[in-house]
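look at this record:
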Amino acid sequence: MPGLMLGDTVPNLAIETTHGKMKLHDFIGDSWTILFSHPGSLYSQYYLRTCMCRGFHARSTTLKMLLGLSCDEVESHKAWIKDVEAFTPGAKVMYPVIADPNREIIKELNMVEPEEDASGKQVPSRALHIVGPDKKIKLSFLYPASTGRNMEEVVRVLDSLQRATKHKIATPCNWKPGEPVVISPSVSSKQAKEMFP
């Protein structure tokens, strides 16, 4: 599949968001970032996922940034955010949402659904990239527009990636925070004895 792959640096795109204009690398800074796309502001599944992201954002201590992306205009995103906050008690959409009405950014970030909408335009898939502080793709999920994501899995994977980066460990199948981990295969026996006495 063409487009961004694991280990690739995300392009430093100029983006227009609900929080203003910025460059993607400036937004990421030195943080871990979850960049996720959705078919449109008014999709009910996205509404539900956003509420989950809100809760995820509140309880995460190591994630600094969430960044949404849709092919609607900024004003459409802002109207949708008002609806979410008005009709969901306690809801506050804290993260920016990128506007991509010309479908250029979804192509650059490899977030395109193979199907087209009723007008023949490409739509974003339910894609998600976890981007490290080095601006490189650490993980990608790519779901069809018809299937919502599991944000609890995103939390689990992010925790695993951050631990692996910091401690040179690997997490086994079905691992959850608090469970045993293994030493990364990239660590020699000598290094392991020094790192994990």
Observations:
- The chain has a mean pLDDT of 82.
